[in-house]
Amino acid sequence: MMLRPRQRQFVNRSIQALRTHGNTLGVAPTGSGKTICLSGTAGEFLTHPDAKACVLAHRDELTAQNQSKFSRVNPGIRTSVFDAHQKSWAGQATFAMVQTLVRHLDQLPTIDLLVIDEAHHCAAPTYRQVIDTTLARNPKALIYGVTATPNRGDGKGLREVFSNVADQIRLGELIRSGHLVSPRTFVIDVGTREALDGVKKLAEDYDMNAVASIMNNAPVNDAVVRHWKEKGAGRKTIAFAATVAHAEAVRDAFLVGGVAAAVVHGEMSEAERKATLADFETGDLMVIVNVAVLTEGYDYTPTACIVLLRPSSDKSTLIQMVGRGLRVVDPTEYPGVVKTDCLVLDFGTASLKHGSLEQEVDLDGFDAEGEAPTKECPACQAEIPRASRECPLCGHVFEPEEKDDEEGTLDDFVMTEIDLLKRSNFSWCDLFGDDCALLAAGFKAWAGVFFLEGRWYAVGGQGTVPVRLLGIGERTVCLAQANDWLNDQETDDAAHKSRRWLTEVPTENQLRYLPPTLRADFGLTRYQASALLTFQFNKHAIQRLVQAANQRHLEAA
Predict the structure, then answer these.
(1) Would you call 497 helix, strand, or coil by DSSP?
(2) pLDDT tens per residue across span 293-314
(3) 10 Å Cβ neighbour count for 504?
(4) DSSP annotation string for 144-167
(5) 175 belongs to a structural domain
């Protein structure tokens, strides 16, 4: 497989930082291909057959996922696993569970590179034990961390492990490039904002019992359902409540309103949670109300609405909650599902507090017991609490941060589209000169994007594998899905746009199969001829897929 140009840049910057500092942290959010970047970086340090690396994770599924993707990026490097089920260091790259490894540190060999996935966890004692043991066995060992959320809610910094940040891929980049859908946020005041502003913070977050005492009443819950019906009806929805009792009351309000809803929380058994989530994903459930269990590690891509019924003192938590709804949909996996954005209904003021989903990395951390964030009064320049509506020193009254009862607060993501045609590893051909049919081809695979009745469709093919539908929706998202298909199928020896032969004249065989009108184009290149022929050979399959998908959309509408 090939890395996206932005992923390759991330890897190159990580390699340089590791060589310069001996350690580094990379920040890569959901949708960026964090594991691919991690694998690309680690692979560069394992070219010598005696070099060894350990890739550390905190969940079984992450260990398996990391190993699988690493092998795709680095097919020539041996791997092994060290977890509760098997304990082997036979591979050049060993994928280890931190909970298991910390109990068997005596078995840790001398390694050259320690990779920490979800590196914001490395402030925990278990991770520090692994890091310290690694460096004790090999003081020259490199420490590489990757995370989507570097700033911890408890305020603990990562400076003791990482002296620098190699690179940060921002959410805005991924939204503009089509690898995530855009959030449309409405901050809605149902008469609770002033009371929520007064809720105190405990050790790591706001007092959720106090939040529930404000939010959990019949008029508020009924208002939540009403606003959801007005703006989010028909969208698979995940709601975040303050407490279990609050979640159950919100669920009941949805049920009374005729909306199929259920609750998921940490006090349920694993079997109960799995059954409920399965009903959400494959059954009639439209709304899942959860309490702090779906903030991390749960991705059901058709989720297109997030309801926030609680504030968040930590921006990372806000990012994780909203992130459940930002992934794009694979139409092969979810036929008939078209997702162009994610609706965020914020009743809990988190969006107002944090302003946007972007975050600045702070390796030093902060005092979790410290004072609340402040803002400057424009009248007297005093530093006052950010939630204040009126300056306590001069009496200046701040203008409301929203009009009426709602306001889109993440407008910083409404930016110019990134030109993927220029950033792509491949050369894209405008087949008919009308910008409605674009195609790129490698040696093993091809991909195209096609416009029909106001919607774009991404289609890809590979050898004898049937042509498949890759994406439906906005042009940028479809281009991103088509590009990723080519990157996934091809290697660096593929039809890269820098290859000289691309601009040579068509071969006699190519010209033989092209229609007469196209053969008369004396400016036609060999690569353009290849793209046109690919389209001609797959035209009927492309038409069938696109027209069938369009018909499903029309029927659903």
Answers:
(1) coil
(2) 887 778 899 999 999 999 988 8
(3) 12
(4) EEEES--S-TT---STTT-S-EEE
(5) no
Residues 6+ apart with CB under 8 A from 478: 178, 449, 456, 457, 458, 470, 471, 472
Higher confidence at residue 301 or residue 433?
A: 301
Place of tokens 């940040």: 165
Domain range holding 215?
A: 182-413
DSSP state letters, 350-366 = HHHHH-SS-----TT--
49 touches 76 (CB < 8 A): no
Distance, in Å, from the CA atom of 485 to the CA atom of 481, rounded to the nearest integer, reads 6
117-174 residue pLDDT tens: 999 889 889 999 999 999 999 999 999 999 988 877 666 888 999 999 999 998 888 9
The two structure tokens encoding residue 379: 């009248």
On whether residue 481 sits in a domain, the answer given is yes
Say if CB 76 and CB 37 are below 8 A apart: no
Same domain, 16 and 150: yes
Please say if the pLDDT value at position 522 is more than 70.
no
| Residue that is last in its domain, among 142, 169, 196 | 169
The DSSP line for 5-21 is HHHHHHHHHHHHHHHHH
Domain boundary among 381, 413, 445: 413
Q: What is Dmax (Cα atoms) for the chain?
A: 83
Comparing 21-25, 68-72, 184-188, the range with the smallest average pLDDT is 184-188
pTM exceeding the 0.90 threshold for the entire prediction: no
**In a domain? residue 176:** no
Above 70 in pLDDT, residue 406? Answer: no
Helix (H, G, I), strand (E, B) or coil at 418: coil
Q: Are residues 143 and 86 located together in one domain of the fold? A: yes
